[in-house]
Design goal:
The chain has 561 residues and is an alpha+beta fold. Helix content is 51%, strand content 20%. It is built from 15 helices and 19 strands. 31% of the residues are buried.
Length: 561
């Protein structure tokens, strides 16, 4: 019987151990990578859904502002009175970019089209099949998702037009269309997802292609059709389209009759996950094989000193596999084993720093420091991709914990966004600054716990009173609240402020002795059509000064700055 050499006895078990270790490590890391990737995709889709819904609300607001504003435009009114189609086309074509809409349709009091900005040669027909036009000719302003003669899916707002004597002479319908290839391509760039629009159950615009061709004309999966069109419900889940799997979101668009006449689709291809997973597995296998090869060569030539470094490195790899990245590789030789040790230390250091930076960012954001971000530029390759994904998917705590409405930081961010938007659109913006009258006395009488109940009731009352989707209310701090009213002039702002004041005055705030306690507020109002030369902080100061005037004038009142 032949005897195995000492080298063979060492090499064979060592090779077996290293192979098993490499396999286990790769399987573990692959499973972890897939779990993290699926979680990140779900979170990204959730964030995309919220952003998409805000995108739809923003376009609804744009169409409404456009229709109302142009219905009060003197040039437009005169052109409609004169039935001057050429002048109507000139006026409304130039207004599309101003109000961020795609088209205007103008008709007379009988619903006969006088001009379409998107189809200059198409007029003279009736648009009484559109509910927003019907509402406008009945004296109401309304906004709906609708299908039109030329535009199959859009959001439209109709507004009545009156002459100088108050006689209804026509209606203006302003809208944003969604059924064009350019629109879905823009949405794909915006959300980094595949986008499809269905009219009924048929794709009419999509970013999904097969063999280089867009798959428009294909139909909705019957199972999805039942949910989103017949049951009028949103759907989130895994779907297969043309043989490819997607994590998808379907959202029905309801028209004025409550019918789901169109559907939006956002989808993230699972092929991206599979590709990244395969790359991670391949890289893990390559790294494992390199380590195995180095270890075998080192065993063959330096058997006398191999056992201790191998044991130490195996221990370090086990610690990494178990999630302990705070290692300090002790092998410092200049041979292949030392090179492997340094590579292992570098990987551990990068992963350790990435996790620590993520934890620090989360800790800082929990403290309210939402401007703190990890620096993704210090990482390379897939680590950079992972860091960028964490930044993209990190959520910021922006709500006040006591009242449940947005906090001051959230208000500041929204104010900055709306301020710049008002500058761009040349529209007015108004701010209400509210303060609870003699709140210290209330706390002294009923206790701070009851005071918290009062603040919660006030916040709820403000939220219920301010109903426009573009309006924004927040807790300013302490017993102060703030309301932002985009596209609102001073008359409208004072009107809203008075409604809030009356609602809070009439609200009964329960007290511990069940008698109830009347709570009143004072409100300061500021309004401005901002320009780049205006200072946003000065605008806020005007509202604060107006609040002081309301307090000085006896409280429970509205003052305009």
């Amino acid at each position: 019987m032949s005897k195995k050499s000492f080298k063979t006895k060492i090499i064979i078990p060592a090779v077996i151990v290293l192979v098993v270790l490499v396999v286990v490590l790769n399987v573990f890391l692959s499973m972890r990578f897939m779990a993290i990737s699926n979680s990140l995709i779900t979170e990204k889709l959730t964030a995309d859904i919220n952003s998409f819904k805000f995108f739809l609300e923003d376009n609804m607001a744009n169409s409404r502002v456009a229709a109302i504003s142009m219905s009060r435009n003197l040039e437009a009114i005169n052109a409609i009175q004169e039935r001057d189609t050429v002048e109507i086309l000139r006026i409304f074509a130039s207004a599309q970019d101003l109000y961020r809409v795609n088209f205007f349709t103008v008709c007379d009091a009988q619903g006969v089209v006088l001009g379409r900005s998107h189809e200059p040669d198409n007029y003279g027909d009736s648009v009484l099949n559109q509910q927003n036009v019907i509402d406008a000719l009945e004296g109401r302003v309304s906004t709906y998702f609708e299908a039109g003669t030329a535009v199959r899916v859009s959001v439209r707002s109709g507004s009545p037009v009156y002459d100088n004597d108050g006689v209804l002479i026509g209606a203006i319908s302003g809208g944003v269309r969604f059924d064009s290839d350019s629109q879905v391509e823009e949405l794909k760039k915006l959300f980094h997802t595949e986008v499809t629009l269905f009219s009924g159950n048929t794709r009419i615009a999509t970013t999904i292609t097969q063999n280089g061709q867009s798959i428009v004309g294909t139909t909705l999966d019957p199972r999805i059709e039942e949910i989103v069109i017949r049951q009028k419900r949103e759907y989130i889940g895994d779907v297969t389209i043309q043989g490819n799997n997607y994590t998808a979101f379907y959202m029905p668009l309801l028209n004025a009759k409550g019918e789901a006449f169109a559907t939006f689709f956002l989808g993230i291809p699972e092929a991206n996950i599979i590709s990244a997973s395969r790359k991670a597995i391949r890289d893990g296998i390559i790294l494992g094989l390199c380590g195995l090869a180095v270890s075998i060569v080192f065993l063959l030539f330096v058997m006398s000193s191999i056992s201790r470094p191998i044991s130490e490195l195996a221990g370090d790899m086990d610690r990494i596999a178990s999630g302990d990245l705070s290692i300090n590789v002790k092998v410092k030789s200049d041979d292949e084993l030392g090179l492997f040790a340094r590579s292992l230390q570098k990987v551990a250091d990068i992963l350790d720093k990435l996790l620590k930076d993520i934890n620090i960012m989360i800790t800082e954001q929990k403290k309210g420091n939402i401007d703190y971000h990890l620096d993704a530029t210090q990482f390379l390759g897939d680590y950079r991709i992972l860091a960028d994904s964490v930044l993209e998917l990190s959520s910021f705590g922006m709500n006040d914990k006591l009242t449940g409405i947005p906090n001051r930081r959230s208000f500041d961010n929204r104010m900055d966004w709306e301020w710049n938007r008002a500058i761009r659109d040349k529209t007015p913006i108004s701010m209400l600054l509210l303060d609870v009258d003699k709140f210290k006395n209330y706390n002294d009488s009923f206790g701070h716990q009851q005071g918290d109940v009062a603040l919660q009731t006030i916040a709820k009352t403000i939220k219920q009173t301010v109903k426009r989707s573009t309006d924004f209310s927040a807790r300013w701090g302490g017993e102060e609240f703030a309301v932002l009213l985009p596209a609102t002039d001073s008359t409208g702002a004072v009107y809203v402020a008075e409604k809030i004041r009356e609602a809070i005055e009439n609200a009964v705030v329960p007290s511990h002795d069940q008698r109830g306690a009347k709570v009143t507020i004072s409100i300061g109002v500021s309004t401005l059509v901002p320009s780049p030369e205006n200072d946003m902080n000065a605008f806020v100061t005007v509202a604060d000064n107006a609040l002081y005037k309301a307090k000085e004038a006896g409280r429970n009142r509205v003052a305009f700055g």
